[in-house]
Amino acid sequence: MLGRDSLAGRATIVVAMTLLVGACEGLSVGSKGGPPPTYDLSAPENFPRSGRTARGQIIIPDATATPTLDSEKIIVRPAEGQITALADAQWSERLTKLVQVRTIQAFENANRLRAVGRPSDRITADYQLLLDIRAFEILVPGGPAAEVEISAKIVAEGSGRIIAAHIFRATIPASSAQGAAAIAALDAAFGKVATDVVLWTTRLI
Predict the structure, then answer these.
(1) Which of 9, 49, 109, 143 has the fewest CB neighbours in a 10 Å radius?
(2) Domain assignment of residue 191, given as a range
(3) Is the pLDDT of residue 176 over 70?
(4) Given pLDDT bands bounded at 50, 70 and 90, which one contains residue 26?
(5) Are 103 and 194 in contact (CB under 8 A)?
């Protein structure tokens, strides 16, 4: 038979364990409320070896986009006329900045220009490449699929004259409209568009 001291000791242990479990549950709930996973885009690397090397030098400013696209949110269209954002994912930085940086890297990977850089770089540019993001989203109706559409303009640096303009578009099926599967499809669609932008630009300058 247990004495009063033993019973009091056991009661103290039970209370302590209860408090510890409650604290752990509180930590678990807090972690679920943290920031969503962050995703990045990759710059395409595989370009045809044949093709002339362009003599021009270009600068690429930040891309432009509507306020809906100009953020870290990853856009989903669950139905016609509806727009939402993935709750379990976000871009590593504003999409307009991300597209600019990865497009510059794509030109560097292709190695077909004398120089490419940002407006802040000390490059005596012959041209600017202006990019406007018209679509960068996961389409659920008829999909899911990733759709990327970017308008590109080559502008002569001295005169401001538009040398050429074209709209590039790619649609890639996605195995899911959520998380990593959706991001992989968006990355593939961007890679196709960025590759086409590089090949088109280097043919013209």
Answers:
(1) 49
(2) 38-204
(3) yes
(4) very low
(5) yes
Tell me how many domains the chain contains. Answer: 2
Q: Which residues contact 154 (CB under 8 A, 6 or more apart)?
A: 58, 127, 128, 129, 162, 163, 164, 165, 201, 204, 205
- What 3-state DSSP class applies to 90? strand
For residues 50 and 39, give the distance between their C-alpha atoms in angstroms, rounded to a whole number: 33
Residue 131 and residue 69 share a domain: yes
Half-sphere exposure of 8 (CA within 13 A, CB side): 3
Separation CA 149–CA 97 (nearest Å):
16
Question: Is the CB of residue 61 less than 8 Å from the CB of residue 9?
Answer: no
Whether 146 and 165 share a structural domain: yes
Q: What letter represents residue 148's amino acid?
A: V
Count the Cβ atoms, other than its own, within 10 Å of residue 144.
20
Same domain, yes or no, for 52 and 16? Answer: no
In terms of domains, do 82 and 179 share one?
Answer: yes
Alpha-carbon span 191 to 197, nearest angstrom: 10
Distance CA 85, CA 14 (A): 45
pLDDT digits (tens, 9 = 90+) for 106-135: 999 999 999 999 999 989 999 999 999 999
Same domain, 16 and 72: no
Query: Are residues 141 and 125 located together in one domain of the fold?
Result: yes
- State pTM to two decimals: 0.82
**How crowded is the C-beta side of 117, counted as CA atoms within 13 Å?**
11
